[in-house]
Design goal:
The protein is mainly α and about 240 residues long. The chain contains seven helices and no strands. The chain is rod-shaped, with a radius of gyration of 29 Å.
Amino acid sequence: MENMVVASIFSGAVWQIIGNTSVFGKFILLALVTMSLVSWVIIFAKWRQFRAVEEANRRFIQTFRRSRTLGESVGQAKSQKLAPVSHIFLAGFSELGQLREIKNEAGGLQESIKPLDQHDYDILEMSMERALTEQVAELRSRVIFLATTGSSAPFMGLLGTVVGIMDSFWSIGERGSASLAVVAPGIAEALLATIIGLGAAIPAVIAYNWANNKMKFISDFSYNFILEFITRTKKEVR
């Protein structure tokens, strides 16, 4: 019976099944379809965003490593707005300038200005890590919806399944018959809810894990850049 119902769904009878579905069952199906469509929109948007971010990161890193001084990378950082490392660089460069100004003021009329110490470099690293956190938060936006869909869609599909089976039992009691013509509509409704629930959940779970992996890669890449920036600062700033 199950194979017959599934075959009828893919042969074009799905609209007939939806037409015979209860109001509550239609609401469940509509919610699942909406969640699935929104999830796919987010998936494609995040795929484009991550691809653009990785390319922008790569271009900026190449420019940064070719530059002779930190100041030479400022213009490129401002032009690569999609690259998280550009924002991190600008935050670090700005913090570095403020730290050097403080050292200048502390130096007063002394002939030599005090160099940056380990405490200053700790402040510099924390400033850049704060910028990193802000960038990762932007990348994480809307990804939580994929997790919500992946965890809730199967249960909503199960709820629709239960409603369909209840309709079948109600039809049996109302007509006093357990024939296929009586129970088939309710079972078809139940199976349709299960299919759509799983169809919404499976891509969302896969995409959520993929997005988390991408964000971890970008976060690790950006943190390595922070270490590279600080190392280079220690070589240039005396």
